[in-house]
Recover the amino acids of this structure.
């Protein structure tokens, strides 16, 4: 009888601790929201004439959220500081003073390293979590979005180093008015990247350079494999744990 009462007390206390921890640590939820905003607002902001300023600030916010989400140890935070600092400095330099393709290419390279490191750090952290929560699943969604963003920067770097690697309607990618650097031309390639990642492939923007085609194939494969394995694994564990908790609550 005493053991039964003890188990009844232990279960609600454990559930409360998990619920409190989940509500207080929505790191992945914040990062997921900022990533979605940065993806959806690139073209509208540029078309409205506010692209460099607002989008640059949004990139800074995404970088900070990424560091907060995956930098859960002092060592990781130091690495993030070393990666985020040049990204923020270069973005602010482009926003305030403008820049040529050389500086934009350096910024894209640092962004690619930062986003790749963030995705790997999130995967490692998520795999170590014993109790899968909704925020954990959002961590998996963050990785999926980070894959698309990373490939978008890689596409931009390819196009920047070799103009004509991507064609839009059979023509070179259009350079927007008053824009002479990577930050202004990236939205089209972000659109292409996520069309490839989701295997939609509208065909309005196509890779023609060999390296661009290889990247497109790898991104399409990685996107489908990630959804079918890692994200499906997280959702399956979440549903299994939810059913188990409901059974235990019913039995008690």
């Amino acid at each position: 009888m005493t053991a039964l009462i003890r188990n009844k007390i232990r279960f609600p206390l454990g559930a409360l601790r998990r619920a409190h921890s989940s509500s207080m640590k929505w790191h992945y939820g914040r990062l997921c929201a900022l990533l979605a905003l940065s993806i959806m607002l690139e073209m509208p902001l540029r078309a409205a004439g506010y692209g460099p300023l607002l989008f640059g600030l949004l990139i800074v916010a995404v970088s900070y959220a990424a560091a907060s989400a995956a930098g859960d140890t002092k060592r990781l935070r130091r690495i993030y500081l070393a990666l985020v600092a040049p990204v923020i400095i270069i973005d602010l330099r482009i926003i305030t003073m403008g820049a040529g393709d050389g500086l934009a290419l350096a910024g894209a390279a640092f962004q690619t390293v930062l986003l790749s490191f963030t995705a790997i750090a999130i995967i490692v952290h998520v795999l170590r979590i014993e109790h899968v929560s909704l925020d954990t699943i959002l961590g998996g969604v963050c990785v999926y979005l980070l894959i698309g963003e990373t490939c978008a920067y890689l596409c931009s770097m390819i196009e920047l180093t070799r103009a004509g690697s991507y064609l839009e309607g059979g023509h070179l990618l259009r350079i927007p008015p008053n824009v002479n650097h990577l930050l202004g031309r990236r939205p089209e390639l972000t659109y292409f990247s996520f069309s490839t990642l989701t295997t939609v492939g509208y065909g309005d923007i196509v890779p023609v350079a060999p390296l661009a085609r290889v990247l497109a194939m790898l991104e399409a494969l990685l996107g489908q494999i990630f959804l079918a394995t890692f994200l499906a694994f997280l959702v399956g564990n979440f549903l299994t744990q939810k059913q188990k908790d409901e059974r235990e609550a019913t039995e008690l």
Q: What stands out?
A: The chain has one domain: 27-251.
